[in-house]
Design goal:
Elements lengths: L8 E5 L3 H13 L3 E5 L5 H7 L4 E5 L7 H10 L6 E5 L5 H9 L3 E4 L4 H17 L12 E3 L2 E4 L4 E4 L2 E4 L2 H12 L7 H9 L7 H15 L9 E4 L3 E4 L16
Organism: Paraburkholderia phenazinium
GO molecular function: phosphorelay response regulator activity; transcription cis-regulatory region binding
Protein name: Two-component system, OmpR family, phosphate regulon response regulator OmpR
Length: 251
């Protein structure tokens, strides 16, 4: 195992008793602490009393399904890592899940070793994101209707304060530090997670999509985080200049 010396804790939410038993046995032998729920209806209540490192959440369950449970978590501001399990062969659940805030997904059936590898990757990425416990001594940055406070890691708009997730804050900070520069997806991965970052291009696109939901009046026609076709993204603080009309400056 490559996980840190501290015991990794996983909460498995799945109505399949046989799968729960199999995974509990395998993961336990890997030194991972596993707790289980047979449905997602009480997931939020469980998390209020016990916080795992990662939630492994089945999509298709009776009652409250996995996507609904995930949506409730993200709407409440809970940024706990979530891996979705899906038995469908198409990409619908995967795409919807990523857009709703899932960190990863695995298609059933799967090898338990793959789950361990995905958990390791998520925890590595999470450790690479700066901790809120170490506020940055830097003046707030104003752009458009917004002001980002680096010390409190909050975003203000129209006299309202928005709480950003750690990933949203890190991505917005990268864009601010490289304003008006076209950043390729590979460069974004490097800036966010280091040179050994193992995020996919798709994962970066999902993170940008989520941040656009926070910043843009109309996310389908973004003005602050603009797409440079075939190259990547550019942050335009005044929201006026179109990236496609500017010379690309790669960082």
């Amino acid at each position: 195992m490559n996980l840190e010396a501290m015991t990794t804790r996983i909460l498995l939410v799945d109505d399949d008793l046989e799968l729960r038993t199999l995974l509990c046995d395998y993961l336990g032998r890997q030194g991972i602490e596993v707790s289980t729920l047979h449905d997602a209806g009480t997931l939020q209540q469980r998390l209020e009393h016990a916080r795992p490192d990662v939630v492994v959440l089945d999509v298709l369950m009776p009652g409250v399904d996995g996507l609904t449970a995930l949506g409730r978590l993200r709407t409440s501001g809970d940024d706990i890592p979530v891996i979705l399990l899906t038995g469908r062969s198409d990409d619908v659940d995967r795409i919807i899940g990523l857009e709703m805030g899932a960190d990863d997904y695995i298609s059933k059936p799967f090898n338990p070793r793959e789950l361990v590898a995905r958990v390791e990757a998520i925890l590595r990425r999470r450790r690479a994101v700066p901790s809120p416990a170490a506020p940055e001594q830097r003046k707030p940055f104003a752009f458009g209707r917004f002001k980002l406070d680096f010390q409190s890691r909050t975003l203000s708009v129209d006299n309202r304060t928005l709480i950003l997730s750690a990933t949203e804050f890190a991505l917005l900070k990268v864009f601010i530090n490289h304003s008006m520069r076209t950043l390729t997806r590979d460069r974004l991965i490097e800036l966010l997670y280091g040179p050994e970052g193992d995020r996919t291009d798709r994962g970066v696109d999902v993170q940008v999509w989520r941040l656009r939901q926070v910043l843009e009046v109309n996310p389908s026609t973004p003005r602050l985080i603009q797409t440079v076709r075939g190259r990547g993204y550019v942050f335009v603080p005044d929201g006026e200049q179109h990236a496609t009309q500017q010379p690309a400056v790669f960082s």
